[in-house]
Amino acid sequence: MKAISKMIVFIISINLTFAIQINAASLPITLDELRVALNTSINSAEFLITDGNYEMVDLLTQLNLGDSTQDTSWLITPVGKTSLQTSRNGQSVSKLSGHLLMLRPKNPSELNVFKFQGKRYRDSLLIENVNGKLNVINLISVEKYLYGVVGAEIGANAPDEALKAQAVASRSYALYYKENPQMGYDVGISTRWQVYGGYDSEVQSGQRVINAVDSTKGQVITYEGSLIQAFFHANSGGFTENSENVWWAFIPYIRAVPSPGDLYALNYPVQEGGWPANTYQWTKTFSSSELEKQIIAYNKDYPENPLQVGNIIDMRISRLCVDPNTSPRQYMQNETLSSRVTELEIVGTQGTKTFFRDGIRSVFDLRSSLFDVFFDSTVEIISAAGLKITNSGEGLLAVGLNGLSEKINGNSSSYYVQEVDEIRAVPKKLSTITFNGKGYGHGLGMSQWGARGLAVQGYNYLQILKYYYNNNNYDGKLTIGMYTGQLK
Questions:
Q1: Alpha helices of 288-390 — where are they, by DSSP H?
Q2: Boundaries of every domain in the chain
Q3: 321 SS3 class
Q4: What is the number of other CB atoms lying within 10 angstroms of the CB of residue 44?
Q5: Phi first, then psi: what are they for 150, rounded to 5°?
Q6: Which of 41, 116, 187, 386 has the lowest CB atom count within 10 Å?
Q7: Confidence tier at 4 by pLDDT (50, 70, 90)
Q8: pLDDT digits (tens, 9 = 90+) for 158-189
Q9: Burial (Cβ within 10 Å: 0-12, 13-18, ≥19) of residue 268
Q10: Are the CB atoms for 403 and 248 separated by under 8 Å?
């Protein structure tokens, strides 16, 4: 008996040791499941069962903490760095649980839905204590996940072939990050990843989106046998861009191509706020005070790379291409095919600061890096030295009738310039800066409005995908086929 008792204790110890090693990232899941982070590093998680029947399980001990039917509410809070406190319908579950809980359907074939932070989601939920904070992760099949992605991303009213193209691109994108995880989960729900609206988005999008997902079930894009990073964006403004001109990395299937279908956004009925026309063409103007507020907001969001140059007096832009064959990267003499800006030098009264490629957008919260910038203080001066363009008239002098050099218009804050049809008052210091731009997003891969436009012209989803993810470079290395699991 004693020997048997010792053996039992030994076996239990092995099982507990194995269980302690389980976390959301290492939890075994099936080939077609995703870990979707609904929120991370939060102090508590509250959710409500709206459909189906669930059980709450402590994955350390496999103990069922309680069954859940419609209108059952749960509140989970971290205790220390390794435990969780659970309350069901306002009543505390007596024992602390381990660091990882799962809310899982009792009958997966039924509709099972829970509500978290105002949105409904299908299937299972993982709640993990990570160093005293909670990660809340939806465990869901790839296809059901796409029901809540496709309409939220490209719009449920997009043409059928555009919806299918989005479904294949989104599936490829999500599975790429499942195979190449960066966090303790596969993807998130924001535009940093791709927008996932859960079951609410699925219901709102309707049957056409579900049909687009179902009709392309399992299809992914591969390049030389590996899943691609199927980047996409709202509107390229007429031309997508090479990956290295937006981010440093050279990606062979993310090449600049004309995107005339983007114009479809201008033919679409204009909605509130100018959408979707302003995804193709936009203007953003800052007054001096608005510019100051924008810089303060930027510095708060990006303290690691602040803009601190005093009052802005000039901006210089460069559109030179990055040479992907150099390390460290060097610029070439030719400009980007899309005319996107690759360097923005900001000159101020206390110094200069340069921003690069896609990082330029965040400084002034611009829709894209495809833009021109105009100062209301800009003038062109023709002198003996030739044509000069200046954005500040404070240092300009004029020769008067007496032959003496004087400040233009004395100490006045502005002066006057004779143009072809009128005399224009020009401030000596900028009072407004205007960005005139095209496109919405980073401009890499598939343009969603471009895909809409191509679909209207009769392109099918396979043609749309091959156009945006390799176009004329297509040489058989890029294929669209069924996902079979871990690829090389």
A1: 288-301, 359-364
A2: 33-142, 145-278+441-482, 379-429
A3: strand
A4: 14
A5: -60, -50
A6: 386
A7: very low
A8: 999 999 999 999 999 999 999 998 888 999 99
A9: middle
A10: no
